[in-house]
Design a protein that fits this description.
Elements lengths: L38 E3 L3 E5 L5 E5 L5 E5 L1 E6 L16 E2 L6 E6 L3 E12 L3 H5 L5 E12 L5 E10 L3 E6 L8 E6 L2 E6 L1 H15 L4 H11 L3
Antiparallel strand pairs: 1-2, 2-3, 3-4, 5-6, 5-11, 7-8, 8-9, 9-10, 12-13
Helix pairs in contact: 2-3
Keywords: Glycosidase, Hydrolase
EC number: 3.2.1.170
Enzyme class: hydrolase
């Protein structure tokens, strides 16, 4: 026999607390705080589900609203096992047209939303080049909001039935930055935004080109040089 137990305890930093489970003893059953349909909410966040399976977040402290959070973006990947490289015939798709199935459960110490949908995507690079999509990606997202936590937990499971592509989760924010920090297989990379990155990469290649006429012409076209 298995049981799921939720414990509402504050543990001090670098400390511990010992709890005992007593069999066959009556306990207090805490009722769920909210039955609001389509809403997860605590003292810090209000989370509503959009029709396409994305989230609308409201930060109660600041009043800032974040919309269309957790949209899936699908695009090509013609690189190898180490490097990402978009295909020449790109076709970017998103989950904006998804028809999700959503389940919301309110429990004593947390609320949880389960969002499921399928995305039709190109099966491979050849299909992408001719705008066909016989491949499929099954998406399951589990969003958990504990009643006393500022953190929103998200667990994403994918059933990938396509090749040569990249999936990204989009989280729109109001942050403005000149660089992007991304993880790799062996560490992380701090890179400028895409346009700046392309120009700087082209400039570095020009310095190393050693007189290759064709490469020089291609790179000048990229940087806009005459």
């Amino acid at each position: 026999m298995e049981f799921d137990i939720q414990i509402n305890q504050i543990v001090p930093s670098m400390g511990y607390r010992t709890l005992y489970i007593e069999a066959n003893q009556p306990g207090n059953v805490i009722a769920a705080k909210s039955d609001a349909e389509g809403i997860l909410e605590n003292a810090f966040w209000q989370i509503a589900l959009n029709e396409d399976g994305t989230l609308q977040l409201v930060d109660k402290d600041s009043g800032v609203r974040y919309d269309r959070v957790l949209q899936i973006e699908e695009s090509s990947d013609d690189g190898d096992e180490y490097d990402y490289s978009p295909a020449k015939e790109e076709w970017v798709m998103t989950s904006a047209t998804a028809k999700p199935q959503c389940e919301i459960t309110h429990e004593a110490w947390q609320s949880r939303a389960v969002i499921r949908y399928d995305m039709a995507v190109p099966l491979n690079l050849l299909e992408r080049s001719v705008r066909q999509s016989t491949g499929r990606v099954g998406v399951e997202m589990v969003v958990t909001l504990s009643h006393n936590s500022r953190r929103i937990d998200v667990d994403i499971n994918l059933d990938n039935q396509a090749d040569d592509h990249r999936l990204r989760v989009l989280i729109p924010t109001s942050f403005n930055t000149d660089s992007v920090l991304a993880d790799t297989q062996f560490g992380f990379a701090n890179a400028p935004r895409e346009r700046q990155c392309n120009e700087q990469l082209a400039a570095r290649r020009l310095e190393r080109s050693a007189g290759s006429g064709m490469e020089y012409a291609q790179l000048c076209s990229l940087t806009g040089r005459a």
